[in-house]
């Protein structure tokens, strides 16, 4: 019952909400963006290839991300559940995911779709800051660090992600509309989608998501 996908445009809060859901249910949070950024920072061959696409706000080729996901999902801890964040982002990836899960005798229970307007997304991403060292996420307006520009967790410097720069954000939103919105139709036709209002602060969105999931799990 806890094999979940979180879906929504860049900046809709997928990462933050998934971390909360993962904590509450004790399931792994699997983010393709985080896995890719780890490869980029370690400068692996894989990471160097992915970086070219990420810096332009384009999708990394399916072959690369599918391989990442297959490895991540094969881990035994995923049997009790998981929350996928940032994957699948194309219909082809959704089809590949189905094949991977079939092999593991698993299936997706729910797709949480966070709805947020473009205006709010652009505002959120331009004020998002991440720690260059540990990856902790802040927002200069809604969730500032105690000391400006310094991570509360590890003291590392806070930066604007390269792909959160306004010109790249525009590209990411266009890519989302073109490539990823059809993924939603794929899951709507399979009656898996839970539409959730993603506007407002983290606590409000978290409560909406958890209440909806609890309700669905009670009914099933
Ligand atoms: P995110 O942190 O999820 O916004 O992902 C950051 C970037 O990583 C995206 O803009 C893409 O370039 C790449 N990326 C993440 N997930 C995928 C995916 N499922 N397919 C292709 N590229 C991805």
**Number of DSSP strand runs:** 8
Measured as a percent range, the helix fraction is 40-55%
Q: Rg from C-alpha positions?
A: 17 Å
Count structural domains: 1
Annotated CATH topology = Rossmann fold
Strand content: 5-15%
How are strands sequenced across the largest beta sheet? 2-3-1-4-8
Could you tell me how far the N terminus lies from the C terminus, measured between alpha carbons in angstroms? 9 Å
Order of helices and strands: EHEHHHEHEHEEEHEH
Mean pLDDT: 92
Largest sheet: 5 strands, parallel
Mind telling me the CATH class?
Alpha Beta
- Bound ligands, each once: adenosine monophosphate
CATH superfamily: P-loop containing nucleotide triphosphate hydrolases
SSE layout:
Layout: E1 3-7, H1 14-25, E2 29-31, H2 32-41, H3 45-56, H4 62-73, E3 82-85, H5 91-104, E4 110-115, H6 118-126, E5 128-131, E6 137-139, E7 158-159, H7 166-188, E8 193-197, H8 202-219
Parallel strand pairs: 1-3, 1-4, 2-3, 4-8
Antiparallel strand pairs: 5-6, 5-7
Helix pairs in contact: 1-8, 2-3, 4-5, 6-7
The chain binds adenosine monophosphate (AMP).
What's the gist of this structure?
By secondary structure, the protein is of the alpha/beta class. It is built from 8 helices and 8 strands; from the N terminus they run E-H-E-H-H-H-E-H-E-H-E-E-E-H-E-H.
Description of the structure:
The chain is an alpha/beta fold and 220 residues long. The mean pLDDT is 92. The chain is built from 8 helices and 8 strands; from the N terminus they run βαβαααβαβαβββαβα. The protein starts with a strand and ends with a helix. It has a single domain (3-117, 169-219), classed as 3-Layer(aba) Sandwich (Rossmann fold). The strands form 2 sheets. It has a 5-stranded parallel β-sheet. A 3-stranded antiparallel β-sheet has the order 6-5-7. Bound molecules: adenosine monophosphate. Residues 10, 32-33, 36, 53-54, 57-60, 65, 86-87, 89, 93, 163, 172 line the site of adenosine monophosphate.
